[in-house]
Amino acid sequence: MNRLYKYIILFLSSLVLGFAYNMFYLPHEVLSSGVNGLAMVFGLLTPINSGIWLVILNIPILFMGWLRLGREFVWNSIFSVFITSISMQYIPLYKITEDVLLSAVFGGVIAGISIGIIIRLNGSTGGFDIIGLVLTQKRDIPLGGLIFGLNSIVVFVSGFVFSWELALYTMASIYITGIVIDRIHTRHIKLNLMVVTNRGEELKRELLNNLIRGITVINGEGGYSKTERKVLYTVISRYELAKVKSLIRSIDPKAFVSISETVEVIGNFRR
Predict the structure, then answer these.
(1) CA distances from 271 to 31, 69, 94, 126, 239 (A)
(2) Which residues face 228 on adjacent strands?
(3) Hey, where are the domains in the chain?
């Protein structure tokens, strides 16, 4: 059921992404980002539909994702790209508004939400999303900001092919999409976790069994009660926080837990 639910969300997000392209971007020739944007350029300049170009351009990048990000990620990405491609062929091109700026803003928000959800479910929309995810394996860089930087090429392409005014609208749309993606995709955010507990061994064992993280155990003493306690310290990603809180509550509901955002992690931290 979890797998079915995941693919239903991927399907709906990909469908909404195709809606954003055909209802906000393409009617005004405001481009999307990266390979999706290049597919739109080719779709507008040739008789071949943009959805077909989207598949063609993504083949070599998906192969790289297979090698670096795993089989499940690539299958999810292929599924997402396929649904987006099909939806772009059947959803009619229609101007919801005549205002290009409104289309750029709302198209960017809708696309950012859709892409962020797809990435959070271990998939991608292909193109620069995959390149960005490969690069974030090495460094803690906000994915949305990285995609924005990589996608700057689309701005220049749209400027030469159409007009520089549309290029600026494209830049605004890409920037908004990047911001929204970073609000949803928070894996680059690292958290310091400190737990003071009377059930240190049991809690440590449960965390080690459910997380791929090292844990430092410190012997502590209550300043008022003089009771000996264990202090567990580790660093986790933002994605792992919900699972960690649930584990702590199930083992020791009375544990004292301190969670703070860390600026940088240096050393052996599995990304």
Answers:
(1) 32, 12, 42, 20, 11
(2) 221
(3) 2-184, 190-261
Q: Hey, what amino acid is at 57?
A: L
Residue 72: what pLDDT? Answer: 83
Find, among 24, 53, 59, 58, the residue nearest to 41 by Cα. 53
Number of other residues whose CB lies within 10 A of the CB of residue 104: 26
Rounded CA-CA distance 129/136 in Å is 11
So what's the pLDDT on residue 35? 73
* pLDDT at position 11: 93
Task: Tell if the pTM clears 0.85, that is, is over it.
Answer: no
In this prediction, residue 12 carries a pLDDT of 94
Strand ranges of the sheet holding 190-197, from the earlier edge strand across to the other edge: 216-221, 228-237, 190-197, 256-261
Q: Give the rounded distance of the alpha carbon of 125 from its chain centre.
A: 10
Mean pLDDT for the chain overall: 81
Residue 193: closest CA among 155, 228, 234, 146: 234
Q: Return the H-helix or E-strand segment holding 195.
A: strand 190-197
User: What CA–CA distances, in Å, run from 168 to 150, 154, 177, 197?
Assistant: 16, 11, 14, 54
What tens digit of pLDDT does each residue of 247-264 get? 888 898 888 999 988 877
Q: Was domain 190-261 assigned CATH 3.30.230.30? A: no
Q: Which residues of the chain have pLDDT under 50?
A: none
**β 228-237/256-261 pair status:** unpaired
